[in-house]
Amino acid sequence: MAKEFILYHYDPSTALAAVFIFLFSNGSLAHGWFLWRHRTWYFIPFIIGGIFELIGYAGRFISSRQSPNWATWPYVMQSLMILLAPIFFAASIYMVLGRIIRLVDANSYSPIRVNWLTKIFVAGDIISFFVQAAGGGMISKAKDDDQAKWGERIIIAGLVIQLIFFGLFVVAAWVFHWRIIRAPTQKAEAVWGLLRQYMLVLYAASFLIIARNAFRVIEYVQGSDGELMSKEMWIYIFDATLMFLVMLLFVIWHPSRIINRSAVASSTDVESASGSHSMVTFWKRGTVQRESSVR
Signal peptide: which range, if any (predicted)? Predict the structure, then answer.
């Protein structure tokens, strides 16, 4: 006879949930302000990811107040929102690289055609999203451990898909970076300091998400009886903290410093941007330089 499925193997912490509600709400507000101030529409998915995290930890907060008689809906809310949030962070990170490549007029340096760069990786995210959502939905309806295990296997497949696409993204970013170092374009030289900074920020954010996804894969492989699911501290160390660091990185080094609202309009993969001519603001040595007609 299959063992009954248990929502939590510990009593969720009210204090930790409250801390990360505070952190993700403030991070989302900060990015919302940047979005409004600089018209960085390509960061809308990033803000959605922050809101997902906020809702997820609100679900954990509610569950913490119900211990040990947990309702199913807060568990489902926290499980799905926290699981899926990094997919939205990733989408904006992909778009930042595409805009940087266009900004420095280095389309030929990209190992993937720039028009397809964002589309390919976002498509991978969409596939991962639906696979993980399907697995999470199956777990939420599980009546016993056997049904939950099938949901966990589906989630693992979705996480592996995301890991593969994110790994390919890092390789694509590195190839572009290596080529631009070997033969910098004139526009790259104009923003060389910031270009170096933002490539490092992209790498750092990417590896934080990769580390988080690897943790999640191991967590689901171990299953409900494993070390990672049986102790709450792990989700806060290897998921909540890492994802907040991703948000914090882009608060400190927001892409609007190197890519302004007009640069967004020059990218063909920006759904909401338009206009035949645009200006790109370059920050270098504390002064603002302008280049016109960037497409």
Answer: none
Cα dihedral value 153, 159, 160, 165, nearest 10 = 160
**Other Cβ atoms within 10 Å of 49 Cβ, number:** 28
* pLDDT for the residue numbered 90: 95
Question: Per-residue b/e over 8-33, b at no fewer than 16 CB within 10 Å?
Answer: beeebbeebbeebbebbbebbebbee
Tell me the per-residue pLDDT of 58-91, one tens digit each, with 9 for 90 and over: 999 999 999 889 999 999 999 999 999 999 999 9
In Å, how far from its chain's centre is CA 141? 27
Q: Read off the pLDDT of each residue in 163-167 and give the average, rounded to a whole number.
A: 93
Please give the helix or strand (H or E) that residue 287 lies within, else none.
strand 287-292
Cα–Cα nearest to 56, from 84, 32, 93: 84
Rounded CA separation 182/116 (Å): 24
Q: Which residue has the tokens 């709450």?
A: 232
CATH number of the 14-255 domain:
1.20.1070
**Can you tell me whether residue 291 is helix, strand or coil?**
strand
How far apart, in whole angstroms, are the C-alpha atoms of residue 159 and residue 23? Answer: 25
CB of 132 closer than 8 Å to CB of 159: yes
Tokens read off for 31 = 């990015």
Helix, strand or coil, per DSSP, at residue 279: strand
Tell me the CA distances in angstroms from 270 to 124, 147, 186, 225, 250, one per residue in order. Answer: 18, 41, 25, 44, 19
C-alpha angle 189-191-197 in degrees, rounded to nearest 5: 115
Domain residue extents for the chain: 14-255
CA distance 50 to 249: 13
**pLDDT tops 80 at residue 213:** yes
Residue 1 or residue 204, greater confidence: 204
